[in-house]
Design brief:
The complex is a heterodimer. Chain A is of the alpha+beta class. Chain A has seven helices and ten strands. Chain B is globular and about 65 Å long. Classes of the chains: A alpha+beta, B mainly alpha.
Chain lengths: ~300, ~525
């Protein structure tokens, strides 16, 4: 912070950037690592990530140390005489083949264990179908008759136009905000069934440790269970190139207390039922119908 | 050699066609090698220019310069041009120049095929690059060409498919030529386990090419029929399977990764012993390590697609097989280090590039190991962490390997020493800026920035700016490279047979520059034994 303050008169623009981003999120300079997240799985993933990272650092210290030592100690300019007999050593070669194998096994075991947990989609309490489309998401609460679209919010959408003249720093959560977030309860094992309507997308919420491709014709499964004490807004983005506006289809998950969620779901179901009136089926085709269709499908029903 | 009468040696200079015919009708391995290298260098600058445009748009948040569709075209074309236009032709060019000299042969085994495999490429890249000017713009679905997205490509779609076909055909023909040359043209006494590592790595690379390029050709042909002839190989609505494309593509794609890096392993295995003045440590282990890496490359492909929703058992298998690759790769790095151990090191430009390769390729290897851990990969997949990973193995890996090779053999090709001071400058600028460019991308990816996006959330601004500054510095520094080569071609201090004190190998037994037909009479066993100093 002190260094930045000293540089301030020299780089006004840069400081303005830092200041503005600090106002709405952590400063960019300090974002160096994976978030620990708000689910047990995301923390396990974080721990695996850190474990393998430190293993790599340890190996790097040894190997880079040997390289640097060679570069310093065995310089021709310092009169080093090459030892041309040192071309083979079965014992050493066996060691540096076997030791990595042991390290790898030690890494693979906890990774496999976590993977088995991640793949366990039994005993889920709430199922939501997520459909990716160009360019947004549809959320469908399968048991409750609630379905709606979620797209980039209009402030970001206006600012992201080529030469819009709007400073992205002035937009609340630029490119990471949507009109209608996915709403889920805390402390509940939520299963998401992920598919796509047109091309392949990928539904990614880093704080949950969930990334799964949304593929037309496939239904992928993933799940998350947010800590009871961690309600809040969690943001992610589409992670698979899906065309022109791939960079502009964020994901926002609004995690609420169980009671708040129940109220929200009831209100939403009632509102959608009313809007749907007697005619319309709840299903809509995302490619054909824009976001308004979810709120008033009756208008397009036959 | 059978077609060469015994008096050929006195004639071979007279047989050289002059003017444009020398190049268009070229059958000489050195002329064809030169053309490959010029093409590669040209494509390196075109693909690099695209990278500069990408980093320009990403310098700060908000769209300042390009429509997102054009941005996607740039990422797609940058990858295709760099992989198929810069790195692969550079390797083939180096193989053309060096393999006949290193195995004691007069030329490549199939000179006319050699001409054909080169001259396909300018057409392939003219076709690909002209797609920038057709309605709908250049391909923008990523170099991985995943359907259904790639099927939304406009008029450039068939151009993409046919240019990939042409590149594939060229690669296969080039690879066949190299295999036949190595298998049949070796001088008597040049046994397989006396061959230099560059020849070994290229032999294995050539087999990889022959195995996987037809797979890529098949995949893009299926895309073509899906697009134009009503098939539904990859369309779920017609009973097809979009994920099948990914399996087929990466069955090509992962060996392709090793096609891009194995010849670099070969060059590093020549440069480090030369400038350590000590034979390569564990020559046979190096050969077996390359062979194991090549074998493993066929059974790890699905680690590129851990998020598509594979069964648990498949994910576990691909995690374990991927981690296994760390073992032979580790052996190689340890052997290179042991080669320097108790050596007598000097730091000419090829050695500097080789040392940077050792450190920075290892960093790419470490992030590769991290990416193999499936649960962690769920967080890394399709983020800038992956971009950082593969650029670390491809830029300070493959590209630095090529530069080490060019700076190593350029005096042999021209007969003159290049400007060592300027080349040292080229090295330091490249080595510093490549880290400024790519290291921050690890942070961006871990913090949550997806790859292939033209615009980003504001918390990613700072490291993107750093990365862009690194990119501009790296890009500018590369202009030194053709300048240094040009200067060396025009003039310089003449050198003897050996450009470097510690160099071993048959190429250093020939005059510099070498005769038009490298070894018109095979080298004697004593000469071969002197060259194979391991």
């Amino acid at each position: 912070m002190m260094i930045r303050a000293k540089l301030a008169p020299l780089a006004l623009a840069a400081v303005a950037t830092c200041g503005a981003s600090a106002a709405q999120a952590e400063s960019g300079w300090s974002q160096l690592n994976m978030p620990r997240g708000v689910t047990e799985i995301s923390r396990k993933i974080y721990d695996l990530h850190m474990e393998i990272f430190w293993v790599c650092v340890a190996i790097a210290v040894v190997v880079f140390g040997a390289m640097i030592w060679s570069i310093i100690a065995y310089r021709k300019s310092r009169g080093a005489i090459p030892d041309a007999t040192l071309v083979h050593n079965t014992k050493v070669e066996a060691i540096w083949t076997v030791v990595p194998v042991i390290i790898l096994i030690a890494m693979a075991v906890p990774a496999a264990r976590t993977l088995v947990e991640i793949e366990d989609t039994t005993r889920t309490e709430l199922t939501i179908k997520v459909t990716g489309f160009q360019w947004g998401w549809q959320y469908d609460y399968l048991d409750d008759g609630v379905a709606y679209y979620s797209r980039l919010d209009r402030h970001s959408d206006a600012a992201r136009e080529l030469l819009s003249g709007i400073d992205p720093n002035s937009v609340d959560h630029y490119l990471l905000n949507v009109d209608h977030p996915l709403v889920v309860p805390v402390g509940t094992k939520v299963r998401v069934l992920i598919t796509a309507a047109d091309v392949i997308h990928s539904w990614w919420v880093p704080a949950f440790g969930v990334k799964k491709d949304a593929i037309p014709g496939f239904v992928n499964e993933a799940w998350f269970k947010v800590d009871t004490d961690k309600p809040g807004l969690y943001r992610g983005q589409c992670a698979e190139l899906c065309g022109r506006d791939h960079g502009f289809m964020p994901i926002v998950v609004d995690v609420r207390s169980k009671a708040d969620f129940a109220t929200w779901l009831k209100d939403k179901a009632a509102a959608q039922k009313q809007a749907a009136a007697p005619l319309a089926p709840p299903a809509v085709t995302p490619a054909a119908a824009p976001a308004e269709a979810a709120r008033a499908p009756a208008a397009t029903a036959p | 050699m059978a077609e060469q009468p015994s008096h050929a040696a006195s004639h071979d200079h007279d047989h050289k066609p002059h003017g444009w015919r020398r190049w268009v009708y070229a059958t000489n391995h050195k002329d064809i090698g030169t053309m490959y290298l010029i093409l590669a260098c040209t494509m390196f600058f075109i693909g690099g220019g695209m990278a500069m445009l990408i980093r320009l748009e990403l310098f700060k948040p908000g769209l300042q310069f390009f429509d997102p569709q054009f941005f996607n075209s740039m990422t797609t074309m940058h990858a295709l041009i760099m992989i198929f236009g810069a790195v692969m032709p550079a390797w083939t060019g180096l193989a053309n120049w060096m393999v006949p000299m290193q195995v004691g042969a007069p030329d490549m085994a199939l000179p006319r095929l050699n001409n054909f495999s080169f001259w396909i490429l300018p057409f392939a890249f003219t076709l690909l690059l002209s797609s920038l000017f057709v309605p709908g713009g250049a391909p923008a679905g990523g170099w991985t060409m995943y359907p259904p997205l790639v099927l939304q490509t406009g008029a450039s779609f068939p151009m993409l498919v046919f240019s990939v076909h042409l590149m594939g055909a060229s690669s296969i023909l080039g690879a066949i030529n190299i295999v036949v040359t190595i298998m049949n043209m070796r001088a008597p006494g040049m046994t397989l386990l006396r061959m230099p590592l560059f020849v070994w790595t290229w032999l294995i690379t050539a087999y990889l090419l022959i195995a996987v390029m037809p797979v890529l050709a098949g995949a893009v042909t299926m895309l073509l029929t899906d697009h134009f002839f009503g098939t539904t190989f990859f369309t779920a609505a017609g009973g097809g399977d979009p994920v099948m494309f990914q399996h087929i593509f990466w069955f090509f794609g992962h060996p392709e990764v090793y096609i891009l890096i194995l010849p670099a392993f070969g060059i590093i295995s020549e440069v480090i012993p030369t400038f350590s003045r000590k034979p390569l440590f564990g020559y046979e282990a190096m050969v077996y390590a390359v062979a194991s890496i090549a074998f493993l490359s066929f059974i790890v492909w699905a680690h590129h697609m851990f998020t598509v929703g594979m069964p648990l058992a498949a994910q576990l298998f691909f995690m374990l097989s991927t981690m296994l690759i760390a073992v032979p790769t580790g052996v190689k790095v340890f052997n290179w280090t042991a080669t320097m151990w108790k050596g007598s090191l000097s730091f000419e430009p090829p050695m500097l590039f080789a040392l940077a390769f050792l450190f920075l390729f290892s960093i790419g290897g470490f992030s590769g190991l991290m990416l193999a851990i499936v649960p962690a990969d769920y967080q890394y997949q399709d983020t800038y962490f992956v971009v950082a990973h593969f650029h670390y193995v491809l830029v300070p890996g493959s590209i630095f390997g090529i530069m080490a090779g060019v700076y190593y053999w350029l005096p042999k090709w021209t007969g003159r020493m290049y400007d060592l001071k300027l080349a040292t400058w080229h090295f330091w600028l490249s080595a510093i800026f490549v880290n400024v460019l790519f290291f921050p991308q690890h942070f961006l990816g871990l913090a949550g920035m997806p790859r292939r996006i033209p615009d980003y959330a504001v918390q990613f601004t700072d490291w993107n700016m750093v990365s862009s500054i690194g990119a501009f510095g790296f890009g500018l520094a590369q202009f030194l490279f053709p300048y240094i080569i040009w200067k060396c071609v025009r003039g310089g201090q003449p050198i003897g047979n050996k450009a470097w004190e510690g160099a071993h190998g048959l190429e250093w037994e020939l005059p510099s520059p070498p005769p038009y037909h490298s070894w018109t009479t095979p080298p004697s066993d004593a000469v071969i034994a002197r060259g194979a100093a391991h």
